[in-house]
Amino acid sequence: MEAREIVFDFLEGYDLLGAFWVTVKLTVYSALGALIWGTLLAGMRVGPVPLMRGFGTAYVNIVRNIPLTVIIVFASLGLFQTLQVTLGGGDNFETVNFRLAVLSLALYTAAFVCEALRSGINTVPAGQAEAARALGLSFTQVLRLIILPQAFRSVVNPLANVLIALTKNTTVAAAIGVVEAAYLMKDMIEAEAQLILISAIFAFGFICLTLPTGLVLGWVSKKVAVKR
Amino acid sequence: MTTSVLFDAQGPRAKQRNILYTVFFVVAIAAVGWWVYTSLDEKHQLDWVKWEPFFTSSQPWVTYLWPGLQNTLKAAFFALLIALPLGALFGIGRLSDHRRVRVPSGVVVEFFRAIPVLILMITANAAYSEFTDIASDVRPLYAVVTGLVLYNASVLAEIVRAGIQSLPQGQTDAAKAIGMRKGQTMRYVLLPQSVTAMLPAIVSQIVVIVKDTALGGAVLTFPELLASVRPMSANYGANTIACFTIIALIFVVVNFAITSFASWLERRLRRAKKSTGATLGTGPGGGLDTIGTAPLVIEDGRAT
Fold this sequence. Notes:
Chain A has 228 residues and is mostly helical. Chain A has one domain: MetI-like (MetI-like fold). Helix content of chain A is 79%, strand content 0%. Chain A has helices at residues 2-8, 16-46, 50-65, 68-82, 93-123, 126-134, 139-154, 156-169, 181-191, 195-224. Chain A is flat. Chain B is mainly α. Chain B has a single domain (48-299), classed as MetI-like (MetI-like fold). Chain B contains ten helices and two strands, in the order ααααααααααββ. In chain B, helix 3 (59-94) runs antiparallel to helix 4 (99-113). The longest helix of chain B is centred in the middle third of the chain and has 38 residues, at 182-219. Chain A: Pfam families: BPD_transp_1.
């Protein structure tokens, strides 16, 4: 008991769980945004309107090749400080930075969701779409009722990997001062002389977040996979 | 007229409808574009003074952008150079017949893949300043490279493992049948064939490495491309938007070249009759990694 108190007393005054809670919130909000925007992009990319196809392709190719760090720092320096976009956060820097981080993470991750989904669409046998068209379904009906439900089931694993990468990518928000895990870790390392222990704690925290996600969604992907 | 299995060849009504959609889409894009234009114009970010330095003088390129890009590429190059052999070692280690080699390799690989690169970089930076006497001006470079190596070696280990596993079992059996030892089988039979299968995946991992160097600029004072924004916008009259545009453009050009090379390589290797024809795809995640029990995507000839 004594020894434990001495080893861990440097944790006093730091909101460790709070920081990881911010990481979780960043992950969940951006994942939802990325899923919606990524699905729309995938729909555009396989759709019949050439302009939308071009837009989807251009978006994915540009966003995938820009570092997330550049996007997030731009959101802070460019959008917020130069153009005064606050996303309804008003004068509260913390809220504004958090929202900007969510926006950047969602826009960035959507490109990867779109690509995962598109490869899922490719795994759906052509006969499915042909049968749907033979019934007289329109493109949106084919996509919504026949193709996407099967595509989603076959890309649970790739999407899980995107989600895990997103969880880890939320640390980039530390670059614009969102107080999540990596930000707190940097703070603690500078203030306390417990480098190895602090790093181990945060590494453990991230393993706790990412490993179960992979295992649970891996199980789900086996459960929902379309047997062919 | 493009056709796809997802929609019918378009008749006159469908064509009209598509034109309508196109018009709506153009209006929506134009509205966003107009908003961007007016808000940029309002803050005088479109004034020629702010963009002019990049086009009329070589100074920003020579003083900020080129050294920044050099540092970016330098860090990426060193990271790749160290991570490749390490990754091969751990990837082969995970396939070992010996538990005492296989299990530790697996633990190390899974551990470093589960942790954000930024955490690794910050830790490396602090560790170098505490335990070594590396000069403080090169310390960020060391820290960035260390973080990138630890993370990417474990990703590359998975690529190597998946590449070797993608070979037909008959290759190992045949090597055994002619009396090769395990090391010989790996060196003369499995590795040479699987290299072609994993090259595209390795090349597209380079994009991830190049992109992740930017973390060093944002958090560790590593003077790479992104870090050149602040001095530039301070020097050329707060032209933040112009700076970011140029930098994003450079990143896109560099990474697009690497990505195109990867997909060219993939197509070419798939065509080549010498290999087994299987290539590890660059994966639907593209620049993102895989983790946990999920194997890397092994695409057959038909995907995308």
